[in-house]
Each structure stands twice: as C-alpha cells, then as structure tokens.
Amino acid sequence: MTQRIGIYPGTFDPITKGHLHLIRRASHLVDKLIVSVADSSRKRPMFTQHERLALVQTDIDNLHDKACEVVVQGFDNLLVHYAREMGAACIFRGLRAVSDFDYEFQMTGMNLRIAPDIETVFLMASDKWQFVSASFVKEIHGLGGDVSEFVTPSVLAALQDKIDKIA
Length: 167
What we know:
By secondary structure, the protein is an alpha/beta fold. Helix content is 42%, strand content 19%. α1 (17-26) links the parallel β1 and β2 (32-38). The termini are far apart.
C-alpha cells in the first residue's frame, strides 16, 4: 500500500498555535505529514530559516496528539516541484478569511497547471485562531503586547531574544 504524504508549507515566522492546530488536523488525513519551512528570504523574515526550522521542530516534538508521523524540513524551490520530490499527494493550506481564499485560489490554479497530480486541500482555521497571524504576533510583541496566548513558550522566548538583540 502506498503511503499518503501531505505537505503543510509556510514561512512560520514564527509558528503560532493556529499553525499547530492545522498541523494536528492535517495529520489525521495522511500517513505522513511534512511541515515545510520556506526559505522566504524575499519576505525578510525576523527569524532565519534555520531558527524557524528549530522552532517548528520543538513545537512538533511537543505536539502529542498528532495522528501520523510529522517531519520538519526546509525548502527553497517551487512548492509543487518540492512536493513532487517528496512524493506528496497533497498540499495543505490554511484559510482564515476571504482575503486568504483569494490569494490561495490563484495559487492553487497555478499549481494545478504546473502539477495537476498534486491536490491542494484547504483547512478552515478554527474560530479560536482565525485572527491569529505570525505578522500580528510579531507586531504585537514588538510593541510590548502579550502574545503568550497565540504562541508556545519556546516561541515566546525566541521572540523575546530577538527583541532584546534589536534593542
């Protein structure tokens, strides 16, 4: 029997509890889930890819209710090419709002033209996490707000370390 492999890609700058909620749900739909941390240097992330990989790995290691093997890897090429290299049958994408859908709809259309054999699976964010984004987390934390509800303790510590180094 062929193993069903799914990919959940993102910048994860930083990973949030909303991301972890989607990872947990996606793990119930495949035999192996690859959480793929994009290089995304053009987005100028706060954390390096190496730092983001470490933060995601720590959070995955502490995620005890996953239903399949979950591995963390970095990638720096076209997502559908990477998905094909990994033998993935699907790409999971999270949707929080209509604005996410517009972007993801366009991306899915392009991906289908390039790799029609790889499906995109949309997972709607839980109402608890619909408003949480890594960008908001960084902005709120940078302005002295409490983001402990939205990220794990290890991510919170990493955010504080970054702020301390900038100051």
